[in-house]
C-alpha cells in the first residue's frame, strides 16, 4: 500500500558532529544513491525545544544544509528543507499531541536523560512533546523507512505507536507503521571524553566531539587526547567487550573506512594506541577535509543555500499538503 519513502532529520542546534555524519548523514547519502525517494529535513522546530539564539539558529540551519550537500546529498535528487518552512509539521504534531498519551512521553529515556538532575517541571512543554512532533515529521510524508542512530530507536517505536493508535481510533489504515533503519559500524558514536555518553553537538565540551568543520590539527588533537585504556587493541572482537573507549575508536575507524570492525581488528589487533590513533587521525582527516572544505565554499553564498532550502520546502509541501488535508478529513475537520 505504501511506496518506499525515506525521511530523516537533524537538529540545527549546533555544528554537525562525526556522530551525526556516521550515524545519519553518511547513511542518508547511501539511501539517496540507492535510488529510493529521500526527504531530509533540518528540524529547527525541534532545536527550539531548548532556547536558541535566533541569529545562531539561522546560521546553524544554513551550516547544516551546507553539511548535507557537502556530504553528498544532491538537492535535486533528494528533498532537502527546513522544517519550519512547511507548516504541516506543526499542524500534524498538534493532532498527534491529542492521539499520544502523557505517559508515553514520560517514559522516553531521552526525556529522562535530558532532565536528569534538573527540575523537569521547568523544562519546555515542547521538549516533553518532542517525540510527537518527530512522529508528525515522518508520517506527514507517509515515510516507510527512517535511517537514524541508535539514540532515536525509542522515538521511532513511539512513532509506530502513534500511527497505530491513530489508525485504530479513527478506524482507518492511513498512516504506515514506519521501520527504523539502524545500520553500520557506528550507530552510536560515543563522546571522546566519556565512553558512557554519546557524542553530541549539544555536549558542552568541544573536546568530546569531532565537528565536521574541524581543521586537521583539531581532529588530530581531539583523537590523540581521546580517553582510552593503556592496553593494546585486542586480537579478537570479543576483547573489545568491556573496553568502551577502544571499541568506539575501532567503530569510528571501521565506519570511516567502510570496513567491518573485524577487519579493523585484523589489521590493528595487538598494536597500541600509539600506532592506532595516528592511523585514525589520517583516515578521519582524509575523509572529513573534503567535506569541511566544500562546506566553507557553500557557506560563502548563503543566498544560494536559502534558495535551495526554499525549493526543497516547496517540494516537501507538495507531498505534505494532501496528506494533511486527508488527515483533517479523517478527524472531522
Ligand atoms: P545531536 O545529539 O548531535 O543533537 P540529533 O538529535 O540532531 O543529534 O540527531 C540527528 C541524527 O544523528 C539522528 O539520526 C541521530 O540518531 C544521529 N546521531 C546523533 N548523535 C549520534 C551519535 N553519537 N552516533 C550515531 N548517530 C548519532
Ligand atoms: Na539528539
What this model shows, in words?
It contains 13 helices and five strands. By secondary structure, it is mostly helical. The chain folds into two domains: 5-181 and 302-331, HUPs (Rossmann fold); 206-296, Tyrosyl-Transfer RNA Synthetase (Orthogonal Bundle). The strands form two sheets. The protein has a three-stranded parallel sheet with strand order 1-2-3. A two-stranded parallel ribbon has the order 4-5. Strand 1, helix 1 (18-33) and strand 2 form a beta-alpha-beta unit. Helix 10 crosses helix 12. The two termini are 25 Å apart.
Number of domains: 2
Number of helices: 13
CATH homologous superfamily title of the largest domain: HUPs
**Number of beta strands:** 5
Strand order of the largest sheet: 1-2-3
Q: Find the CATH topology of the largest domain.
A: Rossmann fold
Mean pLDDT: 97
Subcellular location: Cytoplasm
Function: Catalyzes the attachment of tryptophan to tRNA(Trp).
InterPro entries: aa-tRNA-synth_I_CS, aa-tRNA-synth_Ic, Rossmann-like_a/b/a_fold, Trp-tRNA-ligase, Trp-tRNA-ligase_bac-type, Trp-tRNA_synthetase
Organism: Albidovulum marisflavi
Amino acid at each position: 500500500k505504501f511506496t518506499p519513502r525515506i525521511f530523516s532529520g537533524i537538529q540545527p542546534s549546533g555544528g554537525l558532529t562525526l556522530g551525526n555524519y556516521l550515524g545519519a548523514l553518511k547513511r542518508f547519502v547511501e539511501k539517496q544513491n540507492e535510488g529510493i525517494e529521500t526527504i531530509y529535513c533540518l528540524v529547527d522546530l525541534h532545536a527550539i525545544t531548548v532556547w536558541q539564539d535566533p541569529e545562531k539558529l539561522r546560521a546553524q540551519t544554513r551550516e547544516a544544509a551546507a553539511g548535507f550537500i557537502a556530504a553528498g546529498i544532491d538537492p535535486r535528487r533528494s528533498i532537502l528543507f527546513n522544517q519550519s518552512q512547511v507548516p504541516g509539521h506543526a499542524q500534524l504534531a498538534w493532532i498527534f499531541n491529542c492521539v499520544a498519551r502523557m505517559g508515553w512521553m514520560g517514559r522516553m529515556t531521552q526525556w529522562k536523560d535530558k532532565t536528569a538532575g534538573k527540575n523537569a517541571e521547568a523544562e519546555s512543554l515542547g521538549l516533553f512533546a518532542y517525540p510527537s512532533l518527530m512522529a508528525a515529521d515522518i508520517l506527514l510524508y507517509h515515510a516507510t523507512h527512517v535511517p537514524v542512530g541508535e539514540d532515536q530507536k525509542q522515538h521511532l517505536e513511539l512513532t509506530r505507536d502513534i500511527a497505530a493508535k491513530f489508525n485504530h481510533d479513527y478506524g482507518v489504515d492511513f498512516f504506515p507503521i514506519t521501520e527504523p533503519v539502524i545500520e553500520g559500524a557506528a550507530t552510536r558514536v560515543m563522546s571522546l571524553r566519556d565512553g558512557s555518553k554519546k557524542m553530541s553537538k549539544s555536549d558542552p565540551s568541544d573536546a568530546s566531539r569531532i565537528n565536521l568543520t574541524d581543521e586537521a590539527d583539531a581532529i588530530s588533537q581531539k583523537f590523540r587526547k581521546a580517553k582510552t585504556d593503556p592496553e593494546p587493541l585486542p586480537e579478537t572482537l570479543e576483547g573489545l567487550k568491556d573496553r568502551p573507549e577502544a571499541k568506539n575508536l575501532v567503530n569510528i575507524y571501521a565506519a570511516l573506512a567502510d570496513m567491518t570492525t573485524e577487519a579493523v581488528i585484523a589489521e590493528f589487533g595487538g598494536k597500541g594506541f600509539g600506532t592506532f590513533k595516528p592511523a585514525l587521525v589520517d583516515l578521519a582527516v582524509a575523509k572529513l577535509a573534503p567535506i569541511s572544505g566544500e562546506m566553507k565554499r557553500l557557506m560563502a553564498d548563503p543566498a544560494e543555500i536559502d534558495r535551495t532550502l526554499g525549493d526543497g520546502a516547496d517540494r516537501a509541501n507538495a507531498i505534505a499538503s494532501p496528506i494533511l488535508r486527508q488527515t483533517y478529513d479523517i478527524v472531522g475537520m
